[in-house]
Amino acid sequence: MISEIFFAKFYNSFWKELLPGREYYVRKINKFDQGKNENLKKTYAMMQMEEVSERRALINDISFYVFREICWGRGATIDDVNFKEAFNVDIDHNEFNIIDVMSKRLLESFSGRNKLEISPIFNGCGIINQVRGDIFYEGTLVEIKARGYTVKYQLTKRFFEFLEGESLSGEVVEKLRVMEGKKHENKAQFIRAVKDAIGPELSKQYLGVILKFFRVRSNFKGLDLQQLLVYGALNYMQRQVKNSRSIERFQLFNPRTGFLWEMDVEGVAFALGGCSSTDIYSEIINFISSDNKSL
User: Using alpha carbons only, how large is the chain's radius of gyration in Å?
Assistant: First the structure.
């Protein structure tokens, strides 16, 4: 038995054959052209609080946990939710602020929706275990994908212009030239590397000509759409035996970058597979129900 995420992520040959329009459509939904993309909206400004990338998934989980607990009436604010005990982790001040902002964005976006379900359950089928989605309301199935941006630091040309008046050996300048083409995610390590090359007398003037820039990661991925389609297929399977949810729209929401994508299910099915959602759901159900499926 496997998870829906594992299936959506690793059975690429199946997905590539089922959804020939996937790559083109993913590029399309990530293109935000001053509001010209009617399916992609910018609902919040991009968060510019840095964090350790290795803890991003943890911060995402805690943010959703806080959102869920408040929606379920187990607190009114983040201070009422004992997430540190629930996750058995220590959170620094910056991480707390990120969790606070992300959980508030989730609350503002979804807490007032009619017939709101947090973590809706979908029965398993074949090789897929019983799974939980993120949010369902008023015919809309929502997945939260809180990918962030990567902050990187790089030496600028201006930095080397500044060095021309300094009495540095050719060996030191050569070391710095090697660093020029490299990008560093950790600011402290980057500055230490520059100091190691120049020496402890590195002045604040040097630091003033280090370029800081943001590089936004891919906002949404084909994996996200495939995950939504797996939920849709499992829900479709449930409807064959009893009344279930009527999923009419898909949404992807990134509380870090502020982007919200939305499209009706049939539009997604046609864009990705050139067919109806029923056709796609049936193919998914047939595949996960057959024996001896391997990578």
Answer: 24
b/e sequence 92-115, b meaning 16+ C-beta within 10 Å: eeebeebbebbbbbbbebbeeeee
Query: Tens digit of pLDDT per residue, the chain (295 long)?
Result: 899 999 999 999 999 999 999 999 998 888 766 556 788 898 998 887 777 778 999 999 999 999 999 999 998 999 999 999 899 999 999 999 999 999 999 999 999 899 999 999 999 999 999 999 999 999 999 999 998 876 677 777 777 777 666 666 778 778 777 777 777 777 777 777 777 777 665 555 666 666 655 565 658 999 999 999 999 999 998 876 666 789 999 999 999 989 999 999 999 999 999 999 999 999 999 999 986 555 5
Architecture of domain 4-148+217-289: Alpha-Beta Complex (3.90)
Domain boundaries along the sequence of the chain: 4-148+217-289, 150-216
